[in-house]
Amino acid sequence: MNSLQDLYSLHQGKVSDKWNLYIKEYDRLLNDYRNIPISLLEIGIQNGGSLEIWAEYFNQATSLIGCDINLDCHQLKYVNPKISVVVGDSSHPETLNQIFGLSEKFDIVIDDGSHRSKDIVHAFASLFPAINLGGIFIAEDLHCSYWEEFEGGLFDRNSSISFFKSLADIVNFQHWGVSKTRSQLLNHFCAKYSISFNEEDLAEIHSVEFINSMCVVRKKSVSACELGNRFVAGKEELVVQGHAKAHLTSYEIRNETRNPLSQDVIEDSSYVDALLKELQDKTEKIHQLDDEVQVLKQTIRKNRLSKLIKQIFKNSFTGSK
Questions:
Q1: How many CB atoms are located within 10 Å of the residue 260 CB?
Q2: Fold that domain 4-225 belongs to in CATH
Q3: What is the DSSP string of 51-84?
């Protein structure tokens, strides 16, 4: 059975554009889905070549759906009846209705769309509930979340990468020790992007994996996401005693309500946004002042040069006498 790298190397059909790291990681991430009747959705397909390759890779797939906002994608035609293309904005309800009309549930969702933070967070909010247990959501090209033109920045708390970092906290919800819910942790994303999350859906986030420019979110049952009982094997305790009797004991929830570092002192995201705006304004003012300083330095240099030239002429004139 050919690897995904082999299929890309041999492909002669429609163009597919992927970073080499993605292709290598996909073989690891998606190999277990190859021989089962999966349904896949890819947002952002450009020339449509990836759908042809997915059809070869997942030869037992029931549906392979591509979605793209580019109207030229209407030109994409496929012989394989399992492949479908929806042309439209995946964040719009009418486009989502078309997608769900082709498949109500998915095992694999890949977001390779606009790469803008708003669209990526929207895609997760809309599509993660539709992923089957055991399924996977993959966001590509997250390097864009560090760039201003894609609604991001290294310290932007509303960027797509910041969103996925928050999901890592949700994986560890059992250990917070405070009364905040999973969905409340995402309040500022909800306010920023006009979205909402269901607590039950968030409870099924099993793992969040970060790879260069990618984030992989796996979905499993709530019980599979919990830490479970303690399992202690063996009988000899020569170094630390008392662990053996803890075998099969349940996890004890801690109370961290008095921990100041477990409290969200900034509940209102507008406060942070105001501070960021103030920081941006002051940074621009600094750049403006720096430009003025450079102009003043040039003026001083010119004045000094002018005085020096005048002095030279004066000395020369005096000397000639």
A1: 7
A2: Rossmann fold (3.40.50)
A3: HHHHHHH-TT-SEEEEEES-GGGGG---SSTTEE
Cβ-in-10-Å burial (0-12, 13-18, 19+) of 294 comes to exposed
* pLDDT tier at 65, thresholds 50, 70, 90: very high
At 135, is the secondary structure helix, strand, or coil?
A: strand
* Burial (CB count <10 Å: 0-12, 13-18, 19+), residue 201: middle
C-alpha–C-alpha distance, residues 197 and 4, integer Å: 34
Nearest to 161 by CA among 146, 183, 182: 146
Note the pLDDT of residue 37: 97
Q: Are strands 214-219 and 131-139 parallel, antiparallel or unpaired?
A: antiparallel
Choosing from 11, 74, 92, 115, which is the catalytic residue? 115
Domain spans, the chain: 4-225, 276-321
- Return the biggest CA–CA distance within the chain: 111
Q: Which helix (H) or strand (E) holds 189?
A: helix 187-193
Answer whether 57's CB lies under 8 Å from 34's CB.
yes
- List, for residues 237-277, the tens digit of each pLDDT value: 889 988 888 888 888 888 898 888 888 765 545 556 666 78
- Lookup: tokens for 259: 């921990």
Q: Does 115 qualify as catalytic in the annotation?
A: yes
Helix (H, G, I), strand (E, B) or coil at 316: helix
Question: Helix axis angle, 117-127 relative to 160-171, nearest 10°?
Answer: 40
- Are the beta carbons of 84 and 112 closer than 8 angstroms? no
Res 87 pLDDT > 80:
yes
> What are the distances in angstroms from CA 272 to CA 87, 143, 161, 232, 246?
37, 23, 18, 46, 45
CA distance 198 to 195: 10
